[in-house]
Design goal:
Helix content is 94%, strand content 0%. The longest helix is centred in the middle third of the chain and has 66 residues. The N and C termini lie far apart (73 Å). The protein is built from two helices and no strands. The mean pLDDT is 87. The protein is mainly α.
């Protein structure tokens, strides 16, 4: 009788161990997926930070241009020149990020 009871407990214990191992594998897979998602999101955050920094620089430049106290024609020429520089810098940054 004791032996039957021990066998039943052993079988139940084996079943629980199998369930725990299966749950462990599921959690391990989920953890890897979450790590990959985290890496992707960190990359996205870095990209967004870079874009934000670029926009802030453009804003600073446009603020400087707006403060220049010269004639309308000269302002337009300076703005056009600065915009050309910004476009060139953006191209360089884009090529460097590849």
């Amino acid at each position: 009788m004791k032996r039957d009871r021990l066998n039943l407990e052993l079988v139940a214990l084996e079943r629980k161990v199998r369930l725990l191992l299966k749950e462990f594998d599921n959690l391990k897979t989920s953890n890897e997926q979450l790590k990959e998602e985290n890496r992707q999101l960190e990359g996205l955050v870095k990209t967004r930070e870079k874009q934000l920094n670029d926009f802030q620089n453009k804003y600073k430049i446009s603020t400087i241009v707006d403060r220049i106290n010269v004639g309308d024609e000269e302002i337009r020429e300076v703005k056009d020149k600065i915009n050309d520089y910004i476009k060139e810098i953006d191209k360089c940054i884009h090529q460097m990020s590849k």
